[in-house]
């Protein structure tokens, strides 16, 4: 029978792994300051201090870039919720506490720099942005009733989820920088994406160690996360509309989710090469493999529908231009 451990036991067994990865992270992390990535000379006062308030024509961002920037920033803004979740499922002292503190401090910089950029360049309506921030942070990010029913709120599920989520966020930030048509924004979001990648590596290494420690338990967590994954931005204002725009224009779409997030992480953990699962674990792995095959079919359908939509839009533009 596969070894079964409690969350507390797993935390204790994996603390040396966490400590080693905190040290690795601190050595690899680049110290940077948000103010160095913001074009301050583009800024001017708003009406309350004698200037002029925001108006749509002041933004140089496309609708797609705006949607992506808002989604990415509000995701970063919800840091208090993520910190609460991490503090709840990680130990309150030792290497785990050191990591949660470091991770929180680094993530906070992302919200600072993106907001400063958007306000200074007048890329987004700052009033609407603040209203959305207030609403999203007030609502927070918690497990849904369905997730609670699946027991997705334990330690293994947390580290598995954040591994995929950090990598997904890295992809989203990086591609957002590319569509902003501004080298300053691109440079800024490259910096943010690099942080997210280092965060992903910490969680990926911890979850990989958990797979070695309790293979069946960790596989169950990984499979649950893959099969029921949702981005942390769920619940923010206009999330669905903005997500559709981002998917349509290749900022974060189903193909990227499968090929740049899910599959690389599963390969790193050697999920389909391991031989340390019990019969129950093997059965769970087969179920995961079937899910991935179905997801591939869904991705292909999405791409075909998107291509047809682009073709129709191009034809319509040609007709209107005549």
Automatic annotation (TrEMBL):
Binds 2 iron ions per subunit. The keyword RNA-binding does not apply. Fe cation 1 binds at residues 76, 107, 110, 196. Signal peptide: none annotated. Residues 285-312 form a coiled coil. The keyword Thylakoid does not apply. GO terms for biological process: fatty acid biosynthetic process. It holds the Pfam family FA_desaturase_2. SUPFAM superfamilies: Ferritin-like (SSF47240). GO terms for molecular function: metal ion binding; stearoyl-[ACP] desaturase activity. Keywords: Coiled coil, Fatty acid biosynthesis, Fatty acid metabolism, Iron, Lipid biosynthesis, Lipid metabolism, Metal-binding, Oxidoreductase. InterPro entries: Fatty_acid_desaturase-2 (IPR005067), Ferritin-like_SF (IPR009078), RNR-like (IPR012348). Homodimer. Belongs to the fatty acid desaturase type 2 family. This is Acyl-[acyl-carrier protein] desaturase.
